[in-house]
């Protein structure tokens, strides 16, 4: 291959990469730009990329218009509880799925796959009826239960991958030394799994924090609603004046997910493919 | 690295046999499994089966009269419900329209990220944004972009002298394409990262050998790269198709199904049927039809692809 073609190919690659960068970044930059623009500029017919007169008014107004703090507290409660419960119950099951081949593991893996294919409508109606029966409609606890089950397929998949990466020889060696099963799990396996468990919990947190559909259906009163549902209330009365607070609130709601996701991204992709290769 | 370790380890994994007695082990296994199994049965497997049963009843919300079995009546009604089939057609258009460009663009991005380029880290960092962002925020954000007056899209069009722009999300002709672009944007990075993981699993020596043999970039892609990432590509595109077909929040926020039902995806249609009009049984029947059609389509896709692989 001659140097010349190599160089033009390189230039083409950089041009393509630039297009991707622009496509990925511009909507987000526009959101940030809108969030910091004063109402006067938002009403202008020639909006600019960089606010001429940047302001925090939109953020203040967003908190005045909608109960964002309460919504954020609801979201935080739901996401934290769901993530914790999910990893606590998923880790032992993932261990069994990874280490024991049997009907149970096959069925669990089958459920993980099938649960991805079912549309939420088919699940949400009976779920709604079941939760109503348990008096868990319009309650954060009902939502938390749904989030736990809803994040389990992913958590099981990830965690089973991490368990497989722990050499069984380590456990066998501990067993030879006379350690009991519980002891082996707690002092040999669990520490090695810890980073994977943390990453899985954070991912479950992000999914619950971002979730909209179940929250929309299951939470009726405004005091109970989570952040994504409250965000859509800004859309209710449509007018140019509302764009600023809308952008400001949307930007704030995204920050936790972005920060946490940046922390765990490498681990998540590694775990996803480790699980995928197995099957 | 993770991939390699995972495969070799799992290759060696044996069921923990040996002394201890199988009955005691079974007890311990159940103890480990039950905390997850019970919620799964009550809140996932149960509702799924219950949902299928509901499709054969006249269940409605907030009704005092007891629910009755009505056999396949819902399905018969559904057969003649042109609104539903319109929505279904839009759903398929949307799912294909999002999944295909998503895959092509993601493959391009993955190949670029795998090449030794300087700005790679920035692309990797930006790829996180659509992936991590709440769908509701993605919708809100693109509404700001598409906004007819204060949006950057129309402003750019005006700056370039290409006219006054238009009201993208409320125009009958532009609404669905505009929404599809958002869907592509939202799902592309995740697909790219999955494909990138597959690419990084391709042995470099094969590439070098093919290059020495004088194979051009395209031939090397066809003969070395593609076979290596094929399983990942197959899995991720099938999953993307399902996820896209079942998507809800994005379009709910962008257009709520409008204008005139042009973007009313089946999920939105069923949601309205169930929670606005309270027709639980009918909406459940819609869900069943969606599952059935999607399963058949996917079965054809996967079988076709797998056959194609044997020929190649």
From TrEMBL, chain B:
Alphabetical keyword list:
Cell membrane, Membrane, Transmembrane, Transmembrane helix, Transport
Q: Which SUPFAM superfamilies does the entry link to?
A: MetI-like
GO biological process, any:
transmembrane transport
Stretches assigned to the ABC transmembrane type-1 domain:
88-301
Q: Which residues cross the membrane?
A: 30-56, 92-113, 125-145, 168-188, 232-254, 280-303
An example GO CC term for this entry is: plasma membrane
Q: How does it sit in the membrane?
A: Multi-pass membrane protein
Read off the InterPro entries from this record: ABC_transporter_permease, MetI-like, MetI-like_sf
Q: Which domain of life is it from?
A: Bacteria
Q: Where in the cell is it found?
A: Cell membrane
The answer to whether keyword Amino-acid biosynthesis applies is no
Extract the ranges annotated as region (Disordered).
1-24
Query: Would I find Transport among this entry's keywords?
Result: yes
Q: Which family does it belong to?
A: Belongs to the binding-protein-dependent transport system permease family.
What's the name of the protein? Sugar ABC transporter permease
Q: Which organism is it from?
A: Streptomyces sp. NBC_00148
Lineage per the UniProt record: Bacteria, Bacillati, Actinomycetota, Actinomycetes, Kitasatosporales
């Amino acid at each position: 291959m001659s140097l010349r073609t190599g160089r033009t190919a390189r230039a083409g690659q950089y041009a393509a990469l630039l297009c991707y960068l622009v496509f990925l970044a511009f909507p987000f930059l526009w959101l940030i730009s809108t969030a910091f623009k004063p109402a006067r500029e938002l009403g202008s017919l020639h909006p600019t990329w960089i606010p001429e007169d940047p302001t925090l008014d939109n953020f203040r107004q967003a908190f005045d218009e909608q109960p964002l703090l309460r919504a954020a507290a609801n979201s935080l409660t739901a996401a934290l509880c769901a993530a914790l419960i999910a990893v606590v119950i998923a880790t032992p099951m993932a261990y069994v799925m990874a280490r024991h081949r049997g009907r149970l593991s096959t069925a669990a893996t089958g459920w993980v796959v099938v649960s991805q294919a079912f549309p939420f409508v088919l699940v949400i109606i009976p779920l709604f009826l079941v939760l109503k029966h348990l008096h868990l409609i319009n309650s954060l606890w009902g939502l938390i239960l749904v989030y736990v089950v809803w994040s389990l397929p992913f958590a099981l998949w990830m965690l089973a991958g991490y368990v497989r990466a722990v050499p069984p020889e380590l456990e066998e060696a501990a067993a030879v030394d006379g350690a009991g099963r519980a002891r082996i799990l707690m002092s040999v396996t669990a520490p090695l799994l810890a980073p994977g468990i943390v990453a899985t919990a954070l991912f479950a947190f992000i999914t619950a924090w971002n979730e909209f559909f179940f929250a929309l259906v299951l939470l009726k009163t405004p005091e109970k609603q989570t952040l994504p549902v409250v965000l859509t209330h800004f859309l209710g009365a449509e007018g140019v004046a509302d764009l600023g607070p809308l952008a400001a609130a949307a930007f704030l709601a995204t920050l936790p997910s972005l920060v946490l996701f940046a922390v765990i991204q490498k681990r998540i992709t590694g775990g996803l493919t480790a699980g995928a290769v197995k099957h | 690295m993770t991939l390699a370790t995972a495969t070799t380890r799992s290759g060696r994994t044996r069921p923990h046999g040996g002394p201890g007695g199988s009955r005691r082990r079974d007890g311990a296994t159940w103890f480990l499994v039950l905390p997850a199994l019970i919620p799964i049965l009550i809140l996932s497997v149960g509702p799924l089966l219950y949902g299928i049963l509901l499709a054969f009843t006249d269940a409605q919300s907030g009704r005092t009269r007891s629910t009755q079995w009505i056999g396949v009546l819902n399905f018969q009604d559904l057969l003649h419900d042109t609104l539903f089939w319109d929505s279904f057609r839009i759903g398929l258009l949307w799912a294909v329209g999002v999944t295909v460009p998503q895959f092509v663009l993601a493959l391009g991005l993955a190949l670029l990220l795998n090449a030794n380029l300087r700005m790679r880290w920035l692309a990797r960092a930006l790829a996180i944004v659509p992936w991590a962002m709440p769908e509701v925020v993605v919708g809100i954000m693109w509404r700001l972009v598409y906004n007819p007056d204060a949006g950057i899209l129309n402003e750019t069009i005006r700056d370039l002298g290409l006219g006054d722009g238009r009201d993208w999300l409320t125009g009958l002709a532009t609404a669905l394409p505009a929404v599809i672009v958002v869907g592509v944007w939202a799902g592309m990075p995740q697909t790219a990262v999955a494909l990138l993981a597959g690419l990084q699993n391709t042995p470099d020596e094969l590439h070098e050998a093919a290059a020495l043999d004088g194979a051009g970039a395209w031939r090397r892609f066809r003969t070395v790269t593609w076979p290596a990432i094929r399983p990942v590509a197959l899995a991720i595109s099938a999953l993307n198709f399902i996820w896209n077909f079942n998507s809800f929040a994005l379009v709910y926020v962008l257009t709520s199904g409008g204008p005139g039902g042009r973007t009313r995806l089946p999920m939105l249609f069923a949601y309205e049927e169930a929670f606005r009009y309270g027709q639980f049984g009918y909406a459940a029947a819609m869900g069943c039809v969606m599952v059935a059609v999607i399963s058949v389509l996917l079965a054809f896709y996967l079988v076709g692809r797998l056959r194609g692989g044997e020929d190649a």
